[in-house]
Amino acid sequence: MAKVTFIEHDGLEQVVDIPTGWTLMQGAVQSGVAGIEGECGGSCACATCHCYVDEALVDSLPPPSETEEEMLDCTASERRSNSRLSCQIRVSDALDGMVVRLPEAQS
């Protein structure tokens, strides 16, 4: 299990315990994090779970797949170098303490 801090665009923080093996999106949706929609349910088909991963952890994550890269080109908010789809990031103990910032809009 990992504690992940989601910071919404307005600065509201929510710390969520996410079980190992779940995705960041699953943990956010199950915990009612308002800034993650996840309309496609995690199939990497909508980009409504866009997030900005803590810069310190970006390089430790597996790189985005070609499909994720394509979906990131369709985000409602600015794509940045640390943009990821939270449905594509599996939680492990190594992510304990991770900070994820949420964009202004998802759709």
TrEMBL record:
- GO MF term (any one): 2 iron, 2 sulfur cluster binding
Task: State the name under which the record lists this protein.
Answer: 2Fe-2S ferredoxin (FdII)
Q: Which family does it belong to?
A: Belongs to the adrenodoxin/putidaredoxin family.
Q: Which cofactor does it need?
A: [2Fe-2S] cluster
What Gene3D superfamilies has UniProt attached to this entry?
3.10.20.30
2Fe-2S ferredoxin-type domain span: 2-106
What SUPFAM superfamilies is this protein classified in? 2Fe-2S ferredoxin-like (SSF54292)
Q: Name one GO biological process term.
A: P450-containing electron transport chain
Sorted alphabetically, which keywords does the UniProt record give? 2Fe-2S, Iron, Iron-sulfur, Metal-binding, Plasmid
**Species this chain originates from:** Azospirillum baldaniorum
Q: Spell out the GO cellular component terms annotated for this protein, sorted alphabetically and separated by semicolons.
A: cytosol
